[in-house]
Write a structure and sequence with these properties.
By secondary structure, the protein is of the alpha/beta class. About 40% of the residues lie in helices and about 20% in strands. The protein contains 12 helices and 13 strands.
Length: about 325
């Protein structure tokens, strides 16, 4: 049994294809197949059912793949230990960021991190939370910047900061007469929402949960966005209101700032965290990344306050 064979087995289990696994491992398909067959002969068990499409993993194969992931993660720790002893920050890091955070963190993160740690190859992808969780479990990502708490088995959460939600209104909205707003000021019939799949959508619905049962949508058209910036533009051009994360307002002009309202206590916030799988080992790289992210957000978001309410990610659907 070799480390390479275990890598090939995990790749086939992940991609459910010998061809795709070979491409990801940068070997020919016959080479990969031969090594897996040798491992099966050595162990005396079949790991995959090759007659099914996509390739199916056997019950024993699934157990072996789980253990192989642990072994491969432990092997990575050797390189991590060497780098720690030599005080070297180098290597590669695969990071995913959810779309409702990416526009406000990524530009500064990519610029600052590349200057401070030029020997680290940072690969960043925008993904929704459901895709991120699957990718972490399949070891296709090292970490992700998401909204939490997720409370998922096999996933570790490292909370970084809490970001307030604010109301953003068109000029004719009655709520603008108030200095601070409450969830009761959110008219769901005039609210622009993100579409399903975004955790921020559920957080907004959690904020307005008392009104959900009273909602009667009578708009002449129905629109949901996949982009926070589009929500802002819909308010500017088509009236109504939306809920935005505070970081989205930092580049607003004076007119737009005048149409932002903060919520009264308990202030609704989202918790933003780095998440990894349980077997993650690049802890030194992770710490440098978390430090860089924290340098990009205001100090008030890094301080835990009692008069805040972290909104749930799992919530009722409209």
């Amino acid at each position: 049994m070799t480390i390479t064979q275990l890598e090939y087995v995990v790749a086939v289990a992940t991609y459910k294809s010998f061809v795709a696994a070979a491409e990801k491992c940068f070997v020919t398909q016959p080479t990969l197949s031969m090594q897996i067959q040798k491992l099966e002969e050595e162990l005396g068990v079949k790991l995959f059912d090759r007659n099914k499409h996509p390739v199916a993993i056997t019950a024993m194969g699934a157990a072996i793949v789980d253990q192989a992931r642990v072994i491969l993660a432990e092997c990575e720790k050797i390189q991590e230990l060497i780098q720690d002893q030599q005080n070297n920050v180098m290597g590669s890091f695969r990071l995913a960021v959810i779309p409702t955070i990416a526009p406000y963190i990524l530009p500064g993160l990519l610029d600052g991190y590349s200057r401070h740690f030029p020997d680290v190859k940072l690969q960043v992808t925008e993904m929704e939370t459901k895709q991120i969780l699957a990718a972490l479990r399949n070891n296709e990502l090292d970490a992700a910047l998401v909204s939490t708490p997720l409370e998922q088995n096999g996933i570790k959460e490292y909370p970084l900061f809490t970001e307030p939600f604010v109301g953003y209104f068109s000029e004719d909205e009655p709520a603008l007469k108030k200095r601070l707003i409450s969830p009761d000021d959110i008219d769901l019939e005039r609210l622009w929402l993100l579409n399903e799949g975004h955790c921020m959508r559920n957080q907004v619905l959690d904020l307005c949960s008392d009104q959900i049962q009273r909602l009667q949508a009578k708009k002449p058209y129905h629109y949901e966005s996949s982009n926070v910036e589009t929500l802002r533009k819909m308010v500017d051009k088509n009236k109504g209101l939306t809920i935005l994360p505070e970081l989205a307002t930092f580049e607003f002009n004076d007119n737009q700032i005048e149409r932002v309202r903060y919520f009264e206590d308990p202030e609704p916030v989202r918790e933003v965290s780095i998440i990894t799988n349980d077997h993650f080992v690049k802890l030194s790289l992770l710490q440098t990344l978390m430090d860089e992210i924290l340098s990009l957000v205001p100090e008030k978001m890094r301080v835990q306050k009692k008069n805040r309410k972290v909104l749930r990610i799992q919530s009722a659907k409209l």
